[in-house]
Amino acid sequence: QVHFVESGGGLVKPGGSLQLSCTYSRTMSRFVTVAWYRQVTGKQRELIASLPGFATANYGDSVKGRFAIWRSTTENTVFLQMNSLRPDDTAVYYCNTPNNIREWGQGTQVTVSS
Fold first, then answer.
1. How many CB atoms neighbour CB 64 within 10 A?
2. Residue 31 contacts by C-beta under 8 Å, 6 or more apart in sequence?
3. What percent of the chain clears pLDDT 90, i.e. is strictly above it?
4. Which residue has the higher pLDDT, 72 or 108?
5. Given this model, what pLDDT does residue 26 score?
């Protein structure tokens, strides 16, 4: 079983940046698609960025041009660089493998507020 541990969240002002990390507990094939999701309290979890193995990343319209996903080549980690943050980016952020959803980690809270 793969477990995810997300980190890097925090409080940031509008226009600021954060980099999130997600470490998974065991090595997965680089052919496995990894993704970042976010969830606002009371709403459904939303897939915002995915990285298919050896292919181009895909982004949701709400984050396109502002966020970037990549994975480490040597460690079991996937990253999410978030720039030009807005208050509506406030959410708990999670990672997972969208083609085979595994147990969700605890996520990392991102709050964008002045």
1. 11
2. 53, 54
3. 82
4. 108
5. 82
Beta bridge partners of 34: 51
Find, among 56, 51, 62, the residue nearest to 24 by Cα: 51
From CA 14, how far away is CA 82, in angstroms rounded? 11
Token match 């080549």: residue? 73
- The CA angle 108-110-112, to the nearest 5 degrees, is 175
From residue 15, give the alpha-carbon distance in Å to each of 32, 60, 89, 101, 109: 32, 19, 11, 32, 17
Q: Report the alpha-carbon distance of residue 95 to residue 31 in Å, rounded.
A: 16
Structural tokens at position 24: 């998974």
Which two three-digit tokens encode residue 65?
Answer: 């041009």
Q: How many CB atoms lie within 10 A of CB 22?
A: 26
Contact call for residues 104 and 24 (beta carbons, < 8 A): no
**Residue 34 and residue 30: Cα distance in Å, rounded?**
9
